Automatic annotation (TrEMBL):
EC number(s) on file: 2.7.11.1
Family: Belongs to the protein kinase superfamily. CAMK Ser/Thr protein kinase family. DAP kinase subfamily.
SUPFAM superfamilies per UniProt: Protein kinase-like (PK-like)
GO MF terms, alphabetically ordered: ATP binding; protein serine/threonine kinase activity
InterPro entries, per the entry: Kinase-like_dom_sf (IPR011009), Prot_kinase_dom (IPR000719)
Residue span(s) of domain Protein kinase: 20-99
Coiled-coil annotated residue ranges, if any: none
GO cellular component: nucleus
Known catalytic reactions: L-seryl-[protein] + ATP = O-phospho-L-seryl-[protein] + ADP + H(+); L-threonyl-[protein] + ATP = O-phospho-L-threonyl-[protein] + ADP + H(+)
Protein name: non-specific serine/threonine protein kinase
Pfam families membership: Pkinase
Length: 99
């Protein structure tokens, strides 16, 4: 969890302190949960996509890295969401995407 603590020091996840806040958004699907977050230094907002590296007995790390590679390859395209940063812990990876 070292990396997520680092993520917490750089980015403020809206809703962790006050879940009734109108800025709290958490969308969850089969493979990921997405929350809105704010960079502490600049105030810019991002979508933090939390992906579990293991789902039941299946290792998803390769698929997550493939998603990161596709997002990096599509960076020049204005119609694809830009990837800002990637964080990794023992259990999950967090992709910071533009809103």
């Amino acid at each position: 969890m070292r990396v997520l603590l680092y993520l917490g020091s750089l980015f403020e996840l809206n809703g962790i302190v006050n879940r009734r806040s109108p800025l709290f958004t958490a969308y969850s699907g089969k493979y990921a949960t997405v929350r809105r977050c704010r960079e502490r230094t600049s105030g810019r907002q991002f979508a933090a996509k939390f992906l579990r590296k293991r789902n039941r007995s299946k290792d998803n790390r390769g698929e997550i890295l493939h998603e990161v590679a596709v997002l990096e390859a599509c960076k020049p395209c204005p119609r694809v969401v830009n990837l800002h940063q990637v964080f990794e812990s023992n259990n999950e990876m967090v992709l910071l995407l533009e809103l």
